[in-house]
Amino acid sequence: MKPIEPTDVQRVIDGFANKDIYLHLETTNGAYATHNNEDFFSAGAYIRNALVRYQHGKIIGDNPYRIGLKLDIGWIYAEGLNHYEVDEQGRLLTAGLDSTGKLAVALQISTKPFE
Amino acid sequence: MEKERQVLVIFPHPDDEAFGVSGTIALHIENNTPVTYICMTLGEMGRNLGNPPFATRESLPKIRKKELQDAADALGLTDLRMWGLRDKTVEFEDDDKLTEKISEAIQELNPSLIISFYPGYSVHPDHEACARAVVRAVGQIEETKRPKLNLVAFANNSIAEIGEPDILHDITAVEDKKIASIKAHRSQTESMVATWAEKMKNQDPTLLNAIRRERFWTYKF
Ligand SMILES: [Zn+2]
């Protein structure tokens, strides 16, 4: 993965619009957050291989970025994104890595189910 | 260290064995005791992707699978079994099915010692789910035929609530193998190992103690 280039990411997001896509969306503080700091309120969510279709999507912000996808009857968004890659299968992998390189959020789009 | 007939190690993540158990594994192997390591997931949800990142969410499992194999090789461990569950979902699996899967492995291998996590004191939800399933499976065995359970606890309240560990292994004799296997889990351990170089040179007693002494609690039903 490399630092996000918003124009390139926008181009890739546009390419998936109005198609059935599989979505991976995840936020995490890590399973050890409360172990390391008892006052820390740990929360996160995870969805893998949600089959959805979006009318349009947009990347916005100034590093870190936000990506929002407008569905016919709803929304998907993620914030804190700063790295991306279009992998060898043409999937869009975006992630938010903290200052130590640890993943905090991921949003990924593919036309085939993720393994 | 007692000579065992067969050792069975069960953990949910590649690298769960690295810091606290790999020396004990290597000692048993050097003692010609067969050791089987069941690793339930591939640590797909690991947050360390390298800094700068050399992995993605999607390539991480492949990388960690290779690292786990390399870590096993470093210890001379030949019976490594990957169950293919998914990281952070172990606690949501069907409890009875998970217990049954462990019971089958116990029946097949007939271990005299099982090493896993201590339920209630192992912090990560997958560790806890793995620990509960292991204790359930062993608990179903008739008391006189049960293998020993040596468990790893590292929750902050461990010693306050379950006391000091009753099993201590000095693994200095296989220290090099242990360090090699820790390093094999590169994606997860690289940044930590980088901080060791200076301490190693100065023979830092805290670090050497942490590496050389492996601690377990015997589980009592
Ligand atoms: Zn773990």
Automatic annotation (TrEMBL), chain A:
InterPro entries: DUF1806 (IPR014934), YojF_sf (IPR036492). Pfam families: DUF1806 (PF08830). This is YojF family protein.
TrEMBL record, chain B:
InterPro entries: BshB2, GlcNAc_PI_deacetylase-related, LmbE-like_dom_sf. Its cofactor is Zn(2+). It holds the Pfam family PIG-L. Transmembrane segments: none annotated. GO terms for molecular function: hydrolase activity, acting on carbon-nitrogen (but not peptide) bonds, in linear amides. PANTHER family: N-ACETYL-ALPHA-D-GLUCOSAMINYL L-MALATE DEACETYLASE 2-RELATED, N-ACETYLGLUCOSAMINYL-PHOSPHATIDYLINOSITOL DE-N-ACETYLASE-RELATED. This is Bacillithiol biosynthesis deacetylase BshB2. It comes from Peribacillus psychrosaccharolyticus. The gene is bshB2.
